[in-house]
Amino acid sequence: MTSLEMETTDINLVQTHIPKEDVDDAVFLSWKDLWVTVRDGRHGSRSILQGLTAYAQPGELLAIMGPSGCGKSTLLDALAGRLNSNTIQVREVLINGHKQALAYGTTAYVTQDDNLVATLTVREAVYYSAQLQLPDSMSNSEKKERAERTIREMGLQDAMNTRIGGWGAKGLSGGQKRRVSICIEILTHPKLLFLDEPTSGLDSAASYYIMSRIASLGRNDGIRRTIIFSIHQPSSEVFQLFNNLCLLSSGKMVYFGPASAANEFFTLNGFPCPTYQNHSDHFLKTINKDFGRVSYVNQSIIYIFFFKTIMKIAAKLGEGEVPYI
Length: 325
Ligand SMILES: Nc1ncnc2c1ncn2[C@@H]1O[C@H](COP(=O)(O)OP(=O)(O)OP(=O)(O)O)[C@@H](O)[C@H]1O
Ligand SMILES: [Mg+2]
Hints:
By secondary structure, this protein is an alpha/beta fold. Helices cover 39% and strands 19% of the residues. Helix 1 runs parallel beside helix 11 (295-318), helix 4 (122-133) packs across helix 5 (140-153) and helix 5 crosses helix 6 (174-186).
């Protein structure tokens, strides 16, 4: 048995310990050795995600980063249970240590593409969505109030009466549309929130604004929310908001652990970030396999990082902090 296999076996032996009060009002998500394979027509099948092991905790932000096409959206889809029908998933995603379904309104997913009705204004889109999603026990005025507060939270108050617009009829900017999509999904105050590239189309100031709003959602409504999102090119300010980071390259996990420890990790493995360079840019440049020049180096660090990540998770599991069976 190799040392990597031994570490993986250790994870299987770890007992679960979840405080009762946390189980009642929070969502711990964990996945181990998760594979997603796609049937590729006549050419057989192709593995998009290969043996991913990680977790997401309540009250924390987990960022999924990696080069385009590495499997970020596929991972989010697998975690949210919404994979395409031509894919096969091996291993389950556990909620609070068990295979279970979440109640309606507990989870929300902001997709990578905005699906909005072009002829509605921002106020109408969010308000109609509130009418449809919020329970009958809430009065109309409460729903309206919730809709308007959410619009303000996302900084869209000046665009309230602007039409969303679409092909052939210009309305909101791309970044504003992203924010409307987020508004619609957070209306129900979900405990588990997935966001696929919430900051695409936004400048760095707007990205920071949106991500800090997302990070502070829990402080405003008192819910210890589990937030998982994919993101491209975060500025260093945005990066500092992340609690945990999952770095993917060609469907494999290169790093999983505290975002603040990733730089040290790269340095220890012989890839220090040059002075004055954004850390996340450096990580992506180092692990990008799309361009041949760096592929040889990447093959070797992927193994080292994956091994170390497994060791870290095993250590954390040993402390009884993570719900895992
Ligand atoms: N249902 C599917 N059928 C066929 N191929 C798929 C399917 N889903 C994903 N893929 C392939 O898997 C790979 C990963 O796709 P995915 O959308 O997860 O990447 P990504 O990291 O989100 O990329 P981006 O940053 O560009 O959004 C791509 O090569 C994509 O073509
Ligand atoms: Mg994607």
